[in-house]
Structures are given as C-alpha cells and as structure tokens.
Design brief:
By secondary structure, the protein is α/β, with parallel strands linked by helices. It folds into two domains: 154 residues, Response regulator (Rossmann fold, 3-Layer(aba) Sandwich), CATH 3.40.50.2300; 163 residues, Response regulator (Rossmann fold), CATH 3.40.50. It contains eleven helices and 14 strands. The protein has a six-stranded parallel beta sheet, with helices on both faces. Strands 7-6-10-11-12-14 form a six-stranded mixed beta sheet, with helices on both faces. A two-stranded antiparallel ribbon has the order 8-9. Helix 5 runs antiparallel to helix 11 and helix 7 packs across helix 8.
Amino acid sequence: MKKLYTLIAVLIVTTLLLTACGGGGGGKFTACEVTDAGGIDDKSFNATAWKGIEDAMKSLDIDGKYLESQQQTDYEKNINAFIDEDCGIIVTVGFLLGDATQAAAIANPDQKFSIVDYAYDPTIPNVLGQVYNTDEAAFLAGYVSAGVTKTGAVGTFGGIQIPTVTVFMDGFAMGVKAYNEKHGTTVKVLGWDPVAQTGLFTGNFESTDDGRKMGETLIDEGADIIMPVAGPVGLGTAAVAKERGNVYIVGVDNDWAIVNSNYADIVLTSVMKFMDVTTLDAIKAAKEGTFAGGVTVGTLANGGVGLADFHDLDSMVSAELKAELEAIKADIIAGKVQTKP
C-alpha cells in the first residue's frame, strides 16, 4: 500500500510539473502563434512576432509552433486548435484577431494569451495586449522624408483603415507638417489627410499587385518617397519604385533594408515596431509564472518603436537634418511634440 501511495504521489507531482511547464504532453513549455492572413513570412508583424518566439525558443529553452490563417474565418479555428494542444501561451497577431482572441480568452480563463498590435478596454485578466506608439517613430520618418524629397510631395497608403494602420499615417503626416513649419516649405502628403482621416487603402494585406497600382498612382501624382502601411502589399510598391527610379520607400514594422535586401538601395528608412521584444517578454512572464493581463506599450522612450538606419541612402540625409531628428526625438520623449492630429 505504501508503494501505491508513493506511485500516486509521483504521478500527481509529474502532472503538476507538466501543467506548470505549459503542457502539450511533452513537459516543455510551448508558445503558439496564430498569424493574420499575411502569413508567417510576411516580412512584417507576423514574422516579427515569430522572431520573438524563436528568440524565446533559444533563450528560454521552450518549444514554438504556429498556425497560418488564410482568411478571417480561420482565426477562431486556429486559436481553438492551440487551446486543445495546451499551449503555455497563445500569441495572436493583429487587430483583426481582436474579437476571436477576446472570445477565446473569456471562454478559457486559464489559458494565457498575448495579442500583438491590439489591446482591450477594459483589460482581460488572461490577455496581455501589445500596442505601440507608432506615430512617434512615423513622425520622424515624415520629417526626414520632407527634408529629402526632390519633388515636394511624399505619399502613403494603408492596407485596411484600422487604427494600427492609420497611426503610422498620422505620425508621418504630422512629421511632414512639422518640417514645413520649421523650414517654411510646402511639402505635400498624398494619400492621407490626418484631420479628415481619409486616404488611400488597398483593402487587404496580401496583394502585391494592389501595392504596385497604389505606388503608380502616388508616383504619377508626384510623390518620390512613399510609405506603404500594408505588410507584403508594400513590396509591390517597392518594385514599381525601383523600376521608375528616383523614388524611395519608407518601410514599416521592421527594417526593410535588411529583410527586403533586394530593395535596400531604395529604402530611405523604416518605422520600427519591436514586436519581437514585447512578444519575448510576454512568453518569459508566462513561463516564469509572472504573467499578468493588461497592456504593454512600446514607445520611443522605452525602445519599443524607433527609426531604422538610413543604410545605403545615408548620404541623402545631411548632418544638419540628422541633428534635427535627434532633437525632435528628445522632444517627443519629453512630451513637447504632438505626434497625433
């Protein structure tokens, strides 16, 4: 009988350890990502969040896996599939997964979630929202674009008109406005009116053909610098910019001169969201038992957002303009500059 009790005790302890480690039957904590329709290799926010999981796999000795959503109807199905697999944390990516993540989190209060580029008000106890003051970094991109344009016109467009897209466009337009006010110039922003909140959108985050068409439209209207806020769609814009010549791209989410190196010679800079860092932090908290729902905000001050280097096009940006950017960055962090309309 004593041996039986000992065996039962061992089984109970083993079960508790497996549960604490994220389950999955293998005893190893597993972080699971559900992508938006752009796919895991979108070279944008899905890929950047996955990098956070890959970094966690290396530094925290965990397992990682993902499910790609081909369409919006896949969101709920993919989330539920990972709930059944007993993931230690489920990372959902993008504004469009907000409703599906909320429903799953409420129905499964013991499952930990983190959603990239979205947050809830009021917060949900088992969901950590990762959001970013992207307008701060985009402001810098707009300012430098206004400083180097030769045509006096810069452009932007979005994939879908949602807050996580328009926040880029707002900051970009406000940066151009600030440059005009300081230098007495009249650089135009094509594709977005931050006051009226109206502009150009492709209606998707997948079609590079749509990105090409939007780029052609903006170039034909005079833009020589374009910031596409549409994930892989922007690669179509980059292609037409390279073909036309003397047209440059501002990348978004990650450093386009690196992740899209074939376009490095036309990428002026990129508006960076360090989603890999915030995703890694969420996974670490879940694994170590310190996870708490709520919101984490990436800013210029804490390094959650930023402006990429100018790389191949560094000579286009004068030393004086670089100095202005550093001063403006400091003023944004100090709360002295308005980066939203």
